[in-house]
Amino acid sequence: MEEKPKLAFVGNSHIAFWALNIYFPQWECLNYGVPGEGLAYVEAFDVDTSDCRVVIQFGSNDIYQLNDENVDGYVERYVKAVLAVPSRQTYLFCIFPRNDYDDYSTSVNKFICMLNQKIHRKLEGTDIIYLDVFDRLLQDGRLNPELTIDDLHLNGKGYSILSEALRRTLEQPLKQAPDL
């Protein structure tokens, strides 16, 4: 029997709660998602995933430690942590929007959008494939409640958006090193 290709998923609750075997039955899915985790977890991640394509998503649990003064340092650490995870190919999802305020404020998601832009710019020139689904998860500047179970964690509709975006990129061949 032919061995299934491996997909390793690293990140927070959005990864931990993803029913990977339902969405990716043709892959051997390894789930290293841990609810509540963020940058420190990815920086300390020491599992050998070098024989896997790796999918990473984190950052929303770090948001309230960030401000205009420390955001650039966070972006540096974020990108360094993502690049340090061994893989055949790495796919990084953007930081997802969240709904934390009863007053329907959109300020946290404006900050996350700016943070995502900084991370995306910092990844230019790397082999990381960036999956930006931020706008697809939004409605009126907030995380679309129809995509969540509790206004924060995704439901099946939300995970379908992620799965579709990832599947489209997985169907493409691995990025090859240029011939020298």
TrEMBL record:
Matches recorded under InterPro entries:
SGNH_hydro, SGNH_hydro_sf
| Database matches in Pfam families | Lipase_GDSL_2
Domain (SGNH hydrolase-type esterase) ranges: 32-160
Locate the coiled-coil region(s) and give their ranges: none
| Keywords from the named record | Hydrolase
Quote one Gene Ontology molecular function term: hydrolase activity, acting on ester bonds
Instruction: Write the protein's name.
Output: SGNH/GDSL hydrolase family protein
At the highest ranks, the source species' classification is: Bacteria, Pseudomonadati, Bacteroidota, Bacteroidia, Bacteroidales
